[in-house]
Design brief:
By secondary structure, the protein is of the alpha+beta class. It is built from 9 helices and 16 strands. A hairpin with a 3-residue loop joins β13 (266-271) and β14 (275-279). It has a 7-stranded antiparallel β-sheet with strand order 10-16-15-14-13-12-11. It has 2 domains: 4-41 and 165-373, Naphthalene 1,2-dioxygenase Alpha Subunit, Chain A, domain 1, CATH 3.90.380; 44-149, Rieske [2Fe-2S] iron-sulphur domain (Rieske Iron-sulfur Protein, 3-layer Sandwich), CATH 2.102.10. 23% of the residues lie in helices and 26% in strands. α5 runs antiparallel to α9 (360-373). It binds FE2/S2 (inorganic) cluster and fe (ii) ion. Fe (ii) ion binds next to loops.
Length: 375
C-alpha cells in the first residue's frame, strides 16, 4: 500500500504533479495488494461471450489471482461463479469444455449443475442415506457479479462496485452512435510484455510517443490532433481525421450502423482498470491486460467487424490489412514500455512527470490507482 504522503505530489495540477512511486510498478507485494484493493473492487474485463457460444460451454479463468468460472447455462444465459467446490475448496473446473451438463469435483464427487446448484454429494449420509443432513440449497457455487456489454464480460469480484451500467456509463457514451450490436468477433492476438500492467495502460493513454515509436501511424494520425479524455473511469484519446485513406476505399468494409460515409474518427478509449476499445468507422479492437505479478502483462487483443465485414471473403484483405496494422503498431510499443519498466528499478526514478497538454489521461489513470491503493 501507499501512504497518503507518497501520493500527495500526484494530486497536484498535472504539470506540477509527480507520478506514483516506482515501487508501485516493481514491487510484487504491491502487485498482490492490487488484486484485492484495486482489481477486486472494480469492474474488470475478464472474458468474452464468443468464448462460450453454446449452452453447456464452461470456461475457467483466473482473474486477479482468483479462480473464476464462466458458464453458458442451458437456457443460454452467461453466468460467473467462483471456481471452487463448496465442500473442501478444490478448484472445480480445470479446463475449458463444451456440452457440459454437470460439473463434478474430482476430489469427493460433489456435483453441480450449470446454474451452480449442488445436486449430488456421494456417500454424504453414510452407506444408506444419500445426502445426510446437508442442506444442498446452501452449498451451491458462489456467484460472482458479472455484466456483459456486447461480447465483453466484466466481473466485480467483491460485489461492491455498484451497477456496471453506472460504472461504465461515461465510457459507453462514446460508443452510443455506433451499431456495436453488429460486431462479430474475428481474431484474437495474444501478447506478453515484460512490464507492469500500468505501464502498458499508460502507454495507450498518450500520443506524445507517436513520432518516436509509431512513424507510420504518426503520418496518418498526427499526435497533436488527438483530444485527451479523462472523465471518471473513462480515459482515452480521440482523433477525427485519423484513419488512412486506403481504409476508406471502394472495397472498404461495411461501416457500423449510424456511421457516415465520410467519418474517419478513431477513438482509443479505456475503461479503468484493464479494458480498452479502439473503434474506427468499420472495425473495433478490444485490448485487455491480464496482470501476472509486477513485471509481466498478458495482453489480449480481439478484433471485430460489422456484420458481413467479419465473414465475407471479399473483405478478407481489408480485414487483414487492419489487423496487421494494429499488430505491428502494438509490437512497436513493447521495447519502450519494457524500457520504462526497467527504469523504474532505479532509485533515481522518483515518479513520472506529466505534460499538461498531452499526458492528462496518464495522470488521471495514476490518480485512479492511487485512490484505491493509498491508505
Ligand atoms: S472438495 Fe470437492 S467434493 Fe470434496
Ligand atoms: Fe504506442
Amino acid at each position: 500500500m501507499l501512504a497518503k504522503s507518497d501520493v500527495e505530489p500526484l494530486f497536484r495540477p498535472t504539470a506540477q504533479a509527480r507520478g506514483l512511486p516506482a515501487l508501485a510498478y516493481t514491487s510484487e507485494e504491491f502487485a498482490r495488494e492490487e488484486c484485492t484493493s484495486l482489481f477486486a473492487r472494480t469492474w474488470m474485463c475478464a472474458g468474452y461471450g464468443h468464448e462460450l457460444p453454446a449452452p453447456g460451454d464452461v470456461l475457467p479463468r483466473t482473474v486477479a489471482g482468483v479462480p473464476l468460472l464462466f458458464v453458458r447455462t442451458r437456457s443460454g444465459e452467461l453466468r460467473c461463479f467462483h471456481n471452487v467446490c463448496s465442500h473442501r475448496g478444490a478448484k472445480l473446473v480445470s479446463e475449458q469444455a463444451s456440452s457440459v451438463q454437470m460439473m463434478r469435483c474430482r476430489y469427493h464427487g460433489w456435483t453441480f449443475d450449470l446454474e451452480g446448484n449442488l445436486r449430488v454429494t456421494p456417500h454424504w449420509g453414510g452407506h444408506n442415506q444419500p445426502s445426510g443432513d446437508l442442506d444442498k440449497a446452501c452449498a451451491g457455487l458462489a456467484p460472482v457479479a458479472m455484466a456483459a456489454w456486447h461480447d465483453w464480460l466484466f466481473v466485480n469480484i467483491d460485489g461492491n462496485a455498484g451497477p456496471f451500467e453506472a460504472y461504465a456509463a461515461p465510457f459507453q457514451a462514446h460508443f452510443a452512435a455506433y451499431g456495436l450490436d453488429e460486431a462479430v468477433w474475428t481474431r484474437t492476438l495474444p501478447y506478453e510484455i515484460s512490464a507492469n500492467w500500468k505501464l502498458v495502460a499508460e502507454n495507450y493513454l498518450e500520443t506524445l510517443h507517436l513520432n518516436f515509436i509509431h512513424t507510420l501511424l504518426a503520418e496518418v494520425a498526427p499526435f497533436e490532433q488527438h483530444a485527451v479524455i479523462a472523465e471518471g473511469n473513462c480515459l482515452g484519446t480521440i482523433i477525427d481525421v485519423g484513419l488512412p485513406e486506403n481504409w476508406v476505399r471502394n472495397d472498404a468494409l461495411p461501416r457500423w450502423r449510424g456511421v457516415d460515409a465520410d467519418n474517419r474518427t478513431a477513438k482509443n478509449m479505456a475503461l479503468f482498470p484493464n479494458f480498452k476499445l479502439v473503434i474506427g468507422p468499420d472495425h473495433c479492437a478490444s485490448m485487455v491486460e491480464f496482470p501476472d505479478g509486477a513485471a509481466t502483462s498478458h495482453q489480449r487483443w480481439d478484433f471485430y467487424f460489422a456484420g458481413q465485414g467479419a465473414t465475407d471473403e471479399c473483405f478478407r484483405s481489408a480485414r487483414e490489412a487492419i489487423i496487421d496494422f494494429y499488430d505491428k503498431t502494438n509490437v512497436e510499443d513493447f521495447g519502450a514500455v519494457e524500457a520504462v519498466h526497467a527504469g523504474h528499478h532505479s532509485p533515481a526514478m522518483k515518479g513520472a512527470r506529466f505534460n499538461g497538454i498531452w499526458e492528462g489521461a496518464v495522470h488521471h489513470f495514476q490518480k485512479l490507482v492511487a485512490e484505491r491503493m493509498a491508505a
